[in-house]
Amino acid sequence: MVFLQSYCEVNASISHTWVDEGIAPCFYFTLVPSILLTIAFFLGTVHCIFYQKYGTAMEPKFIPRSRLYVLQQVVSVLLLLQFLGGLVWRAASGGELPGYVVLYGCFSALGWVWAIALLRTERRRALVMDRTRGHSTALLLFWALAFSAENLAFVSWYSPHWWWGLEDDQQQVQFALWLMRYTGTGLLFFIGFKAPGLPRRPYMLLINEDERDVENSAQSLLGRADENQSTWQGFRKKVRLLVPYMWPRGSLFLQMLVVFCLCLLGVERAINVFVPIYYKNIVNELTDQSPWRALATTVCIYVLLKFFQGGGAGASGFISNMRSFLWIRVQQYTNRVVQVRLFSHLHSLSLRWHLGRKTGDVLRSIDRGTSSINSLLSYIVFSIFPTIADIVISIIYFITYFNAWFGLIVFVCMTLYLTLTIIITEWRTKYRRDMNQQDNNAKSKAVDSLLNFETVKYYNAENYEVSRFEDAILKYQVSEWKTQASLAFLNQTQNLIIGSGLLAGSLLCAYFVTEGKFQVGDFVLFGTYIIQLYTPLNWFGTYYRMIQNSFIDMESMFKLFEEDEEVKDVVNAGSFLYKLGKVEFENVYFSYTNGKEILKDVSFTVLPGQTVALVGPSGSGKSTIVRLLFRFYDVQGGCISIDGQDISKVKQKSLRAHIGVVPQDTVLFNDTIRDNIRYGRIAASDQEVEEAALAADIHDKIMTFPEGYDTQVGERGLKLSGGEKQRVAIARTILKAPQIILLDEATSALDTQTERNIQASLSKVCVNRTTVVVAHRLSTIIGADQILVISDGRIAERGRHEELLLKGGLYADMWMKQQQAQDSDSSSDTETKDRQSEKLQPPSTSSGHHGH
């Protein structure tokens, strides 16, 4: 038979909060369900009303299916049944049934009913203008407090009034129910951050995406959606990319430094505990008028510990400075490895990617990404983990040497602080990401404008460029203001929580001192320890923000790492073996973009030592053939082979080592002329460089410069003329001495006389070498062994010069037009010279003689 005799047990009162080394059950099981029901009822009601009034029912096709969401529902229902089952079991077991047990079961069940209703409401309705998706603050706070309440039970580990002893069947059942609650609330709390079963994008975007053409809109919508995703999304993948940089492989010295720095970190944690204790001892010894020798010893130990610790917890102390000094080498290793790997990866990407890249964006992404990796490692290893360790140590210390109230105060403050910090920081992530994007845009505009300085001057567009840059800066500052304003809001929230906890703990400690339960030194100990604890805790929000900012800053760098190499060496690719230099194109098809073929069924053969010329109108595919032969791209159909070896099956480096290219648009490094020519063969001597310049007919021109071969060519070689740049490129290729030569409009920027000189030089260089020439001036390829006329991606005609003229086809028509244009230019030049000579002749005097 059950007796509902009183609210608490016999000889117990709800005003008794601490009984027999533990929290009084009557007080605990009254406080916890009351808080949970209050949060669930008031915040949940406001939440539901808001969703019903301003939300809309989501269409089923937009609601993602999720097993984790099903798990959330199942766990929530099990917890609800657990509370009801526990109440029924307690009533059926006979004996006294205190009132707080009934209140705990009923209030908890009502709270979880409301939480399940909130979960289902968020699943079925959406705020149309909501920019981010995730569980509401009310639901996250409910789960967080429920999980925290179950953790609070550990405080009563030694109390005989709780179930930890497992002495009888009743305690064993209560322990099993607690274990179910602990596991369930923990699962809901951690799964809640992922928010399964809710759309990952704003509902309005989903509607628009469904109404538009998916092919046209998917890319832009996905791009916008990424702005609102959590920075912790793909965390495991990001960590996998970071792992190679965290541990200095191959260097025993650096590995020992890492281990030693971690040991110093542990020493710092111990010192942080002893500093307040010795400060307390000094106060107590001064109060008790202890002997001078004992007091002096305590003071010296305290000062020594403070010297090791520094002004704050781990700030500017001897150990902290020593650790920072030793960590420099590890940090430099990380910085070097990530930059070198990323730089190598960028060079492995295809020409297609480099033609479409924005140099300013790439440089900013590299700079921010590499610095953010160092920041991330530093914050996680030397800030986050030590701070969490300090919090755990402090809670254990306060519970052990003071009482559970102080541990409770610290625990509640920590929970609220961390929960709100995470929620607010996740909310303001989009502002930081948008600020980075605007920063990239501003820097990209500046870089593009400066790189195209001449174009800006040609079109008198200085004011336009300045206004564009100013507009980009204004947009950046708008995003920056939002970022800073949300940061100020977060800081104020954190300060409010920290101040409230400090006030509650100080008042309680002062009360115990006045009651004679604590000494004055204990109050000093509490104040010193709690301020020492709150110092890193106050920075904890900053650490979390910086870690999240580092993830945001690394996103662009990770995207660079994720860029696939379009042209890859096949598995177990062999090295290219040069034999004679026979080049074959067999039924080659190629397109830069889907739906627009550049080359269509192109087939031809270049025999060893032959010269084949490619001619045709602009855009017909001539330069594409050269790029395919150099394997900047892989063909979509057909095969390209050299000496019977498919070039897609051999290593790119070994293939390109035998091919020399003189491109149509020559871009030089901002270095000396000597080093630009030597780029053809890095190990070449100065004499070989000058011989290559002689062969390219630029040596005499270089010697007229004041600094000769040490002349700086400027950004992209802008200090040299077009013809000089092209001759440097020809000299560079001559120095490389390749077996196969590709000339892409190699003399297009030269005057007639220089062109003839270089043609003679190229003829010597190309002797007994397989040569493919892309030519615009047909007069330069008269002696080619074979001429291919390319039109609309196909070979329209082929043959020698004389044969093609006799055919009277496309080549003959191009030849005729160029000859007419040349004759017209020659006649106009002759007329101009005649007029100039007439103007220079002295006036005739014959009329004066006739006058006599």
TrEMBL record:
Belongs to the ABC transporter superfamily. ABCB family. Heavy Metal importer (TC 3.A.1.210) subfamily. It is found in: Cell membrane; Early endosome membrane; Endoplasmic reticulum membrane; Endosome membrane. It catalyses: uroporphyrin III(in) + ATP + H2O = uroporphyrin III(out) + ADP + phosphate + H(+); coproporphyrin I(in) + ATP + H2O = coproporphyrin I(out) + ADP + phosphate + H(+); coproporphyrinogen III(in) + ATP + H2O = coproporphyrinogen III(out) + ADP + phosphate + H(+); protoporphyrin IX(in) + ATP + H2O = protoporphyrin IX(out) + ADP + phosphate + H(+). It is a multi-pass membrane protein. Residues 842-852 have a biased composition (Polar residues). Residues 583-817 form the ABC transporter domain. Residues 817-852 are annotated as: Disordered. It is an enzyme of class 7 (translocase). The chain crosses the membrane at residues 27-50, 70-89, 101-119, 139-158, 178-195, 252-275, 295-319, 376-399, 405-425, 496-514, 520-540. GO terms for cellular component: early endosome membrane; endoplasmic reticulum membrane; extracellular region; Golgi membrane; lysosomal membrane; melanosome membrane; mitochondrial outer membrane; multivesicular body membrane. This is ATP-binding cassette sub-family B member 6. Residues 818-829 have a biased composition (Low complexity). The keyword Disulfide bond applies. It comes from Labrus bergylta (ballan wrasse). Gene3D superfamilies: ABC transporter type 1, transmembrane domain, P-loop containing nucleotide triphosphate hydrolases. Residues 259-549 form the ABC transmembrane type-1 domain. Its EC number is 7.6.2.5. CDD domains: ABC_6TM_ABCB6, ABCC_ATM1_transporter.
